[in-house]
Amino acid sequence: MLKIIIPTIMLIPLTWLSKSNMMWINSTIYSLMISMVCLPLMNQPCDNSLNLSMLFFSDSLSTPLLMLTTWLLPLMIIASQYHMTKEPLARKKLYITMMILLQIFLIMTFSATELIMFYILFEATLVPTLIIITRWGGQTERLNAGIYFLFYTLAGSLPLLVALTYTQTTLGSLNMLLTQYLTERLTHVWGDSLLWLAFMLAFMVKMPLYGLHLWLPKAHVEAPIAGSMVLAAILLKLGGYGMLRITMMLNPTVNFMAYPFMMLSMWGMVMTSSICLRQTDLKSLIAYSSVSHMALVIMAILIQSPWSFMGATALMIAHGLTSSLLFCLANSNYERTHSRTMILVRGLQMILPLMAAWWLLASLTNLALPPSINLIGELFVTVSMFSWSNFSIILLGINITITALYTLYMLIMTQRGKYTYHIHNIKPSYTRENTLMLLHLTPLLLLMINPKIILGTMY
Amino acid sequence: MFRGALWLLAGRGCVGRGLSTRSGGSTPDWTEKVSEIKKKIQSALPGGAWDPLYDTSHLPPEHSDVVIVGGGVLGLSVAYWLKRLEKPRGAIRVLVVDRDHTYSRASTGLSVGGIRQQFSLPENIQLSLFSVDFLRNINEYLAVVDDPPLDVQFNPSGYLLLASEKGAAIMENNVKVQRPDMAALPSVITMVSQEQESATDRSPSLTRDIRQEGAKVCLMSPEQLQNKFPWINTDGVALASYGLEGEGWFDPWCLLQGLRRKIQSLGVFFCQGEVTRFSTSSSRMQTSGGKEMTLKRIHEVHVKMDHSLEYQPVECALVINAAGAWSGQVAELAGIGKGPPGTLEGTKLPVEPRKRYVYFWHCPEGPGLETPFMADTSGAYFRREGLGHNYLGGCSPTEVRSAWAGYYDYNTFDQNGVVGPHPLVVNMYFATGFSGHGLQQAPAVGRAVAEMVLKGQFQTIDLSSLLFSRFYLGEKVEERNII
């Protein structure tokens, strides 16, 4: 794991010491190379995990997420090039440094063995993200967005700290590899319920769960493009990853605690999808669609069946790539017209046909078209939810329909129809932007061929 | 503090003289030394006043989808219709920027407030027709919850235009010399002079035009005129046209305040400031004929605050130029008209301020309540104001109670409005240049511009003859009789 972490740390001096015209190129290429270095981790020798050291390990759950994280850094750097052109050099370098710092924390989070280390890095990821949102965001609302983001996540994860320290003192170790062998008593006391809640709440806020999701539309919309990408693609998955790890060590007799969150997730999934239909701001639509997809992941993790775990993992990876791609597409619109309102920018298919192709593919994967990995995730989750409770199929079916509805609405509003007069001289797509979309789509489409690698530990 | 301590130490004797007597040299004045030390420290430390949390509530927001430059009746009308026609509610963020919140020099407040359909251009007639409908039902359009209904004081007394037998060209020249703000050319004369006898039954094409569009106008011979309005001196009058319905005058200030109130309830931002700069980006594109043109987009509008150097760059997708008499200057800021003359780049927006005076007098033996808004063969106009024998007019009588002057947003090309986008500065739309009939057409023009912005074409009233490109192509869209 050090072979990934040390180069990522060294990206920081690379940024600061590069010449100004090589800075973006250097950081992009070297971070791409680091993601290539991350690829051999996929070769898991056994069912269990690849234990690299006392501190770091990787198994078939954390490896796809790790790959996603390292793949995303060059994409974030490519996406930020345009809107940073007017900033002074030192500030550009600071921006890239923030992204790299976030990357370091995320890599360590996904490969940590010790739960306290995981927690510390989980909290540490908040700081660079907050700085990116509040310092480089677009509008005055970004201060509000930063506060919501910080305090929701912080408040949610404080009980987690208490629970982790309690477990450390009672158990003696919080090494994830050991806690999976933990045996729990088969009767529960009410303290167990509180412990369950304390463990799960932080990740619920992060996912986000429907009732605690208010920070997400604000943060996603106000963040600059790199911030939106990393938020949508990775930071939400931290919650999912944490939940998947923690459920291994919780008392199975306390599973009744999952019911309120199941209900919130099911209802929230339908609600947020419906809100998407009424959104006028493009980024806001994509942010609410993230909440809707993550609600599926929460439900899958809470019912704790092998199929649902596979579906949750697949959905996390697929959604990460799709959501990040949609944000990049929305950003390419915003950079040209300086407006995120959908009705003012219409009919782009006539003007930018290649970008329309990327929009089409992104929309198709967002609405879980077979055989994309989004479908695999959603299908596994739906099937396992049906077997858990037959009635849930009604809400899940409604959600799938509404997802298709709003995704197509977004596609048709922005691409089809007669174009508005004032966009007929927008700049054509840059190669950089096309590369960005292609780099998002390539893993998404290639994984269709071999989705085994993203199906997680239960495969 | 030093001084006090020294005073105590040195004893009372040294108060008046500091410490001078001890060393016998120059006087080290401690207060001066302290302030010098302070200045040295301040010059060594970086920066001046650093106040990160200063109040910015007077500044406009950093981002707005549409920025409307000019807060007069046209600008507010465009804002209203944008908010009304947007499909999902609350989709577009609109900012209205005006540099004078007292409207002291805006054409709206200083207008005489007449509204008529007696134009010769069909578009003008349709615009006025819709505006009359808007004014009649103003409380259905502009109602705000819990606020009192608007009383726009629409007096539907009609317009009466008089025409003489003399040649139009001579009249035009005279009027231009006397009152450069009026270009009178009632084509009714030339037509009626061909039909010498009665004019009531035969309707010349002018009235036919108006009647086709739905306005109710009747023509009167001098005898009928004398019958209806005995106080008119019909010497030299060959024909008169009288608007029977939907013409008259109203209170422009009430319309402005009604629009303002409604817009604020719909969520439009208002800001007081002056637009000093547009940040644009250009791209060279080729027309289908192979000719290269430079197209521009406006990215940011710099709004400068009053009496200060502070400005706020507002990021925007669209700019609507509704700056009235100063639209030409605003257009120049965007680079319209900067180029070799005769090309599209070099075509300026030909709107400039034209001053015109309005006089207010009292005449107890005056015409009375049935007075229409009258315009004479000489171009003088007047109307009744209120119920106390007071009159407003454009030509000064001998005894005047008061007077004021206002600007027309005068279109020097053809005295008709400019509506719609600019061909080269792609995201600037115009709603200006109406040269004196802007107020009466404001509601309809606002709707037309909003349709153009939101749907890409004019839907209810087709104003494609009033687009900017006519200045370049040289196609004048002139009124044949205009005040």
TrEMBL record, chain A:
InterPro entries: NADH4_N, NADH_Q_OxRdtase_chainM/4, NADH_UbQ_OxRdtase, ND/Mrp_TM. Keywords: Electron transport, Membrane, Mitochondrion, NAD, Respiratory chain, Translocase, Transmembrane, Transmembrane helix, Transport, Ubiquinone. The chain crosses the membrane at residues 21-42, 62-82, 94-110, 116-133, 145-166, 194-216, 223-244, 256-277, 284-303, 309-330, 351-373, 393-414, 435-455. Residues 112-401 form the NADH:quinone oxidoreductase/Mrp antiporter transmembrane domain. The keyword Transmembrane helix applies. It catalyses: a ubiquinone + NADH + 5 H(+)(in) = a ubiquinol + NAD(+) + 4 H(+)(out). GO terms for cellular component: mitochondrial membrane. Residues 1-109 form the NADH:ubiquinone oxidoreductase chain 4 N-terminal domain. It is found in: Mitochondrion membrane. GO terms for molecular function: NADH dehydrogenase (ubiquinone) activity; NADH dehydrogenase activity; ubiquinone binding. It is a multi-pass membrane protein. Its EC number is 7.1.1.2. GO terms for biological process: ATP synthesis coupled electron transport; electron transport coupled proton transport. Belongs to the complex I subunit 4 family. Core subunit of the mitochondrial membrane respiratory chain NADH dehydrogenase (Complex I) which catalyzes electron transfer from NADH through the respiratory chain, using ubiquinone as an electron acceptor. Essential for the catalytic activity and assembly of complex I. This is NADH-ubiquinone oxidoreductase chain 4. It comes from Myotis myotis (Greater mouse-eared bat).
